[in-house]
């Protein structure tokens, strides 16, 4: 399980980015990967999978 902070999340469009702790890398997150609602600046835990356009965060929960 990785940890990070929600950098941006657009609830209306259903996507955003999480900045991964340790690497500073921005990971794409889609609404389908959320286990609960998130907001910008939330600390979260997540798994990373390879998507069509790069890494995607899934199983996202607020830490």
UniProtKB/TrEMBL annotation:
Its main location: cytoplasm. Gene3D superfamilies: Nucleic acid-binding proteins (2.40.50.140). Signal peptide: none annotated. Residues 1-62 form the CSD domain. Pfam families: CSD. Keywords: Cytoplasm. InterPro entries: Cold_shock_CspA, Cold_shock_domain, CSD, CSD_CS, CSP_DNA-bd, NA-bd_OB-fold. CDD domains: CSP_CDS (cd04458). It is found in: Cytoplasm. One of its GO terms (cellular component) is cytosol. It comes from the Bacteria. One of its GO terms (molecular function) is nucleic acid binding. The keyword Cytoplasm applies. PROSITE patterns: CSD_1 (PS00352), CSD_2 (PS51857). PANTHER family: COLD SHOCK DOMAIN CONTAINING PROTEINS. This is Cold-shock protein.
